[in-house]
Amino acid sequence: MNNTTFNFTLNAQNNNARSGTIQLSRGEINTPIFMPVGTYGAVKSLDVQDLKELGAQIILGNTFHLNLRPGLDVISRFKGLHNFNNWQAPILTDSGGFQVFSLGKLRKITENGVEFRSPINGDKHTITPEKSIDIQHQLGSDIIMAFDECTPYPSDYSTVEQSMHLSMRWAKRCYDYHHQNTNDYGTRRGVLFPIVQGGMHLDLRKNSIDMLHEIEQSRSNTTFPGIAIGGLSVGEPMEKMYQVLNELMPIMPTEKPRYLMGVGQPLDILHAISCGVDMFDCVLPSRNARNGHLFTWKGVIKLRNARYKTDENPIDSDCSCLCCRNYSRAYLHHLDKINESLGDRLCTIHNLHFYLDLVKQARNAIIEQNFEQFHHQNKHLHTPIS
Amino acid sequence: MNNTTFNFTLNAQNNNARSGTIQLSRGEINTPIFMPVGTYGAVKSLDVQDLKELGAQIILGNTFHLNLRPGLDVISRFKGLHNFNNWQAPILTDSGGFQVFSLGKLRKITENGVEFRSPINGDKHTITPEKSIDIQHQLGSDIIMAFDECTPYPSDYSTVEQSMHLSMRWAKRCYDYHHQNTNDYGTRRGVLFPIVQGGMHLDLRKNSIDMLHEIEQSRSNTTFPGIAIGGLSVGEPMEKMYQVLNELMPIMPTEKPRYLMGVGQPLDILHAISCGVDMFDCVLPSRNARNGHLFTWKGVIKLRNARYKTDENPIDSDCSCLCCRNYSRAYLHHLDKINESLGDRLCTIHNLHFYLDLVKQARNAIIEQNFEQFHHQNKHLHTPIS
Fold it and tell me: A94 an active-site residue?
């Protein structure tokens, strides 16, 4: 069985901002979309019912983490991640590259791939483009990411160039392996997204896009159905990232959904949408939630501030999430103070609700042809509430 | 406003086991009942929607903990705990006595009350019977517990005797303070339960019951609407506790609900129900859940056992809780391994569902006059599943 379904329809465009629909065999995704991160197969502290109530359409799984724990022996018993974590809508998996490169001294890069030692037990592992795709096949991922090198920032031009070239050679190997193999249980339905690299240099980014196009043309199979932008939000100043997006997006293929990996703050997302990005993921809303940093349409609430100790208001009186329907800032402040995991869950629900609402409102604004105004009206989203 | 409502109706009796209904202004409770423990105003990891879905009818709050965090200044802003934690059904609060006595060297007992140092910041506090009742009034508790000394086990006869006498003098002070005062916002609706002490000695237990009865008779106000059994499950062998219950219950007032404090294992609860106990609380189901100790009608599952690593079955295929409807033992085993709080929540939901089901099935068995058979059929509840 290999019933891969992938279809992307652009429904509306407002200047460079786009709204569309991705059809996958496990469900439809309305873009622009935000994808909550479920590193080890669970979006931290949330169950699948929570995610459904939030209106999540697709979640992310981390190949590197899932390969270590629970490991493919367990996932295979369930014929993939969906049956293991009971999330029956689409899952996008990253390639594991970003995590492997973050290991620093514990890893060694060669043309073949990356050797590294498990941060859990020190065991030696090798991950190659083929291995990454194979793991993602076994996970039963709906959107599979190519294995690439995430170029560090800052790096000199020739380092970025070599790194990008390596990623493009690996992208070709990913493409071939993906199209020539299925998983052990013959249920693969995933599609492969390659990743544009090239750091902060537009010419290298352009070369990267061209080289990915060459891969498609040199093969008789299908084209890449979507395309990701890697190597941003890696420590560069915000202005730099915005500049790269401003220059890069006009030369990206228009018929494919564009996924900006690991970004970011609400205003980064709105800026990227204004440039034409369609898909986002980031741990920020859930991680910040656990640190008492809460997003609202009126600005940021730092829950640990003593002023919230007796505050009877919900986080956001206009918000309809489980947290805001039931609880006050004072109660959440208390839960944070006693390290009660219920607080993590409620705050995560609120922040993810905000992020999913953010992209939904952006979608509507694009459809109604007033995204620019919407964007302009929300420049205060990072400012603490007064 | 002082609209105290309390009514206890016995609906069925099967040998010594009883089933009844407690009416309180915030809701009805069907007995025998188990009360989940919400130490700091939250049943660990659960929100109020979870508790409603579990069918919880009453939860417990800890006076000692809530008085320290968030403190009465915060609770008063909300005019009580119900508005703070948004649990609108009945709440029973303990007196704080048990926690204060657990402080060991940090506390000093006098006739007046107990002096102790806060385990959080070392501040000096004094808690007296009057102070305990006042805090419980401010919390807006529906069932208020008398402040007593929990006699340690083992203790010699005269120590137990003196301790019990002190508790009875304190019970009288609690009674008087309770009936002469309300809270700052005039919304008190709670009723006061006294606590029978006397350790493992039936004669002292009988004296204690008589002395409580004398308090009622010497006062022109209402009688105690319910009565608690303290000083059990404090380290004595199970047989000892069962023996005390066997001997004590026949001499307890029959017209009042009987609350066995801090008990216990499922079989302890079934034994106590067979003796005529009506109300229970214990941290065991929630604490055990967080340690991977799960209860089912077929026996105990120790989730950390490697055999569950790939087990595709739910904890209990006959269970209808959120956890069993959605997840396998293997997934829960994985969540435990990665220390993911979602696992704590799912396991807590399962164990509390089991406990609430246990008392519900007991109720039904009593009504159907086959409690003894039901009890006998479930002697294996503590045995690990094979």
Answer: yes
Task: List Cα–Cα distances, A137 to A134, A174, A221, A262, in angstroms.
Answer: 5, 12, 18, 22
Residue B386 lies in a domain: no
Overall number of domains in chain B: 2
- A273-287 in b/e form (b: 16+ CB < 10 A) is bbbbbbbbbbebbbe
pLDDT of residue B220: 77
B230 in the same domain as B137: yes
Determine, yes or no, domain membership for A65.
Answer: yes
Q: Contact, A204 vs A164, CB < 8 A? A: yes
Domain interval for residue B332: 292-377
Mind telling me how many Å the CA of A218 is from chain B's nearest CA? 42
Q: Is B307 on the interface with A (CB under 8 A)?
A: no
Q: Is the pLDDT of residue B176 over 90?
A: yes
ipTM of the complex: 0.97
Whether pLDDT at B3 is above 80: no
Cross-chain Cβ contact A346/B48 below 8 Å: no
Structure tokens at A380: 């205060």
Of B246, B262, B288, the last residue of a domain is B288
- In B, minimum Cα distance to A120 occurs at B338
Instruction: Read off the pLDDT of residues B98-116 as tens digits, 9 standing for 90 and up.
Output: 888 888 888 899 999 999 9
Residues 328-347 of B with CB under 8 A from A: 328, 330-331, 333-335, 337-338, 340-342, 344-346
Interhelix angle A238-248/A202-218, nearest 10 degrees: 40
Report if residue B385 sits inside a domain: no
Q: Mind listing the pLDDT tens digit for each residue in B62-102?
A: 999 999 999 999 999 999 999 999 999 999 999 998 888 88
Residue ending a domain, choose from B255, B288, B321: B288
Active-site residue flag, A281: yes
Q: Which of B44, B312, B342 sits opposite A77 (nearest CB)?
A: B312
Tell me the CATH number at A277: 3.20.20.105
| Strand ranges of the sheet holding A227-229, from the earlier edge strand across to the other edge | A33-35, A279-281, A258-260, A227-229, A195-196
pLDDT at A221: 65
The reply to whether B281 and B362 lie within a common domain is no
DSSP A223: P
Q: Is B268 within a domain?
A: yes
Per-residue pLDDT band at B1 (split at 50, 70, 90): very low
Interface touch A70/B312, C-beta < 8 Å: no
